[in-house]
Amino acid sequence: MIFPSKFSPLYVGPSRAVILGEATLHGLIEQIKSNLGEKAGQSFLYQLGIGIGQWVYKKYSSLTTDDINDNIKLLAAFCKGVRWGEVIDYFIEEDKITIRIRDLWECDIQKDIVNEPASHLVRGIIAGYAMKLFNHEVIVNETMCMAIGDPYCEFEVNIIK
Ligand SMILES: [Zn+2]
To answer: Which residues pair with 87 in a beta bridge?
Structure first.
């Protein structure tokens, strides 16, 4: 059997990307939770996500303006570009942003496994991104989740001032 020696590299915007399949993602989440315990594992994934979200902002924010709408649209384009899910709606209020994502990978792979909102890594990524955007602490809660039967996942970004 002959395979090409080098497949085409994948890019998302100007940055090199890799594909992590379901087995990798499942293994990552399960291993963290089984080693640290359910709650500590969730907290670890959230903290890990914050670091990733801050890097996403650093890497891509030069592509847009300082406008909040534009930055949410950039996050949505990133999510779609890396196939994490589709941002279908968002609402901006004084100290809160609500983001709805359909087919979020992290929750899709945990359907029928969990009985509460399942996103901790992406929830943290949204938090890290928002912390950089607003230059403030934020808390992100997942208030609806496809893993427990909701039609989409909904995240509330609360800006702590
Ligand atoms: Zn979810």
So the answer is: 101
